[in-house]
C-alpha cells in the first residue's frame, strides 16, 4: 500500500530541509569484515502470571517510572497542537472512560501501572525476517521502528519519540507456576507482546499493516459494541501462553477477528517452519511459507507493505533488505549475519529503536538497542 499523500508531502519537505543530513546511500554490511553483533542484550525482567494482575508490573513500572513519564509528556506535547489541545484532552478523557471495557487481566494490569505512571499508546513500523540456515535451523529477527513522524530533533537529527523509547527497551521472561512460558522484547510500560519466543516451540513478531479498514475503525466498533475483536498484541500474549507448536500458532493468528490489520511473522523449531501471515481485521489474506523446493524461499522478509504491492520509493526497505539477505546466503544465517542485515541502511533508519534476534530451538532472545548514524534516512 502506498504512503498517504500527506506523508509524501511531509517527506518531500523533510528531504529538502536545511536542518537535515544528506539523503542516505543504501548499504549492506554483510561481509564487510567489521564485527557488528555485540551480544549486549537489553535488561531482562520477570513478569509472574501467578501474581495479581494489578501487581505483576510493579517492578518494571517503578524502575522506569521517570522514563515512562518522560515519554507520556512527549506524547502530550506533540499532540497538544492538534485542535488547540482539545485532541489531547479528548484522548485522556476517552481512555479514562473506556478503561472499564477492557478485558481481564489487561484492565487490571493497566490500572496497576497507572497508579505509578501514565501509559502511552504504541504505534510501530518494522522489518522482520524468518530464515533457515544450511543445516535446517530456524532463525527469526526483527527491527522495531517507532517515531510516528512526530517530534523531529533538528539538532541531533533524530525522532524525539525514538530517542526516548530507546531508554525503555527491555526483555521480559514470562513465568507461571515457577516455570518459564516464553520471552518477549518490548518497552517498559507496554503490556502487549510485539516480539517473542517460546523455547523449543516457535517465535512471533508483529509488523504494522496499513489499511483503510484499520485500527481506528476497529476501536470505534469495539467501543460501540458492534463486534468483539481481539486487541492484536494481547492476542499474541494469549497465543504465546497457550499454543504448543508452530502450526497451532499460525492457525490461531490466522482465524481470530482482530482490532487492526497486521503482519504476523512466525518461525518454528523444525526445518521449514516459517510463515508470514498477512491479516485484515477479519481474516488471513495471504500466508507465505518457507519452501525448500524453491531457491528464493529459504527466507521471508516482511516490512510494512503487502507482498504483492510495490513499496513506496520513499520507504523501500524490502528491496535492499532482500539484496542483503541474498548476499548473506543460507550458509551464513546466524545471529551475527542477521544482525548485519538489520543494521544495514535503509533497513536501519532513524526510526529504528531496537533489533531482536530469536531462535525457537534454543529459546534464545537477544535485543540490541539501535541508533542509525548520519547520514541516515528518516524512516
TrEMBL record:
Organism: Trichinella zimbabwensis
Superkingdom of source: Eukaryota
Record's keyword terms, sorted: Disulfide bond, Glycoprotein, Hydrolase, Lipid metabolism, Lysosome, Secreted, Signal, Sphingolipid metabolism, Zymogen
Name this polypeptide is given: Acid ceramidase
Taxonomic lineage from the root: Eukaryota, Metazoa, Ecdysozoa, Nematoda, Enoplea
Active-site residues per Swiss-Prot or TrEMBL entry: 126 (nucleophile)
Keyword Transcription: no
Protein's pathway: Lipid metabolism; sphingolipid metabolism; Sphingolipid metabolism
Domain Acid ceramidase N-terminal span(s) in chain numbering: 42-98
The keyword ATP-binding appears for this protein: no
GO molecular function: fatty acid amide hydrolase activity; N-acylsphingosine amidohydrolase activity
Signal peptide: 1-19
GO biological process, any: fatty acid metabolic process
Amino acid at each position: 500500500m502506498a504512503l498517504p499523500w500527506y506523508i509524501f508531502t511531509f517527506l518531500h519537505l523533510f528531504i529538502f530541509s536545511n536542518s537535515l543530513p544528506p539523503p542516505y546511500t543504501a548499504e549492506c554490511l554483510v561481509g564487510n569484515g567489521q564485527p557488528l553483533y555485540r551480544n549486549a542484550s537489553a535488561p531482562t525482567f520477570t513478569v509472574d502470571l501467578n501474581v495479581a494482575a494489578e501487581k505483576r508490573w510493579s517492578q518494571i513500572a517503578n524502575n522506569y517510572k521517570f522514563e515512562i513519564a518522560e515519554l507520556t509528556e512527549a506524547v502530550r506535547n506533540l499532540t497538544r497542537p492538534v485542535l488547540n489541545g482539545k485532541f489531547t484532552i479528548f484522548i485522556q478523557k476517552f481512555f479514562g472512560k473506556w478503561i472499564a471495557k477492557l478485558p481481564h487481566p489487561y484492565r487490571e494490569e493497566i490500572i496497576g501501572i497507572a497508579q505509578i505512571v501514565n501509559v502511552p499508546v504504541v504505534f510501530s513500523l518494522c522489518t522482520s525476517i524468518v530464515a533457515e540456515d544450511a543445516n535446517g535451523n530456524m532463525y527469526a529477527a526483527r527491527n522495531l521502528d517507532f517515531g510516528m513522524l512526530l517530534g523531529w530533533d533538528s539538532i541531533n537529527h533524530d525522532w524525539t519519540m525514538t530517542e526516548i523509547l530507546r531508554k525503555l527497551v527491555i526483555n521480559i521472561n514470562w513465568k507461571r507456576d515457577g516455570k518459564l512460558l516464553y520471552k518477549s522484547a518490548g518497552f517498559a510500560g507496554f503490556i502487549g507482546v510485539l516480539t517473542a519466543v517460546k523455547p523449543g516451540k516457535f517465535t512471533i513478531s508483529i509488523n504494522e499493516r496499513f489499511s483503510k479498514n484499520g485500527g481506528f475503525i476497529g476501536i470505534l466498533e469495539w467501543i460501540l459494541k458492534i463486534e468483539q475483536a481481539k486487541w492484536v498484541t494481547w492476542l499474541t500474549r494469549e497465543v504465546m501462553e497457550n499454543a504448543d507448536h508452530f502450526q497451532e500458532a499460525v492457525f490461531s493468528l490466522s482465524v481470530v477477528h482482530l482490532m487492526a490489520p497486521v503482519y504476523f511473522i512466525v518461525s518454528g523449531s523444525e526445518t521449514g517452519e516459517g510463515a508470514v501471515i498477512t491479516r485484515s481485521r477479519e481474516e488471513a489474506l495471504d500466508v507465505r511459507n518457507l519452501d525448500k523446493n524453491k531457491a528464493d524461499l529459504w527466507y521471508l522478509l516482511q516490512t510494512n507493505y503487502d507482498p504483492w504491492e510495490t513499496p513506496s520509493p520513499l520507504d523501500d526497505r524490502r528491496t535492499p533488505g532482500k539484496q542483503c539477505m541474498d548476499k548473506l546466503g543460507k550458509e551464513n544465517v546466524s545471529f551475527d549475519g542477521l544482525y548485519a542485515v538489520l543494521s544495514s541502511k535503509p533497513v536501519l533508519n532513524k526510526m529504528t529503536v531496537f533489533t531482536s534476534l530469536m531462535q525457537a530451538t534454543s529459546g534464545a532472545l537477544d535485543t540490541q538497542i539501535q541508533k542509525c548514524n548520519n547520514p541516515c534516512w528518516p524512516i
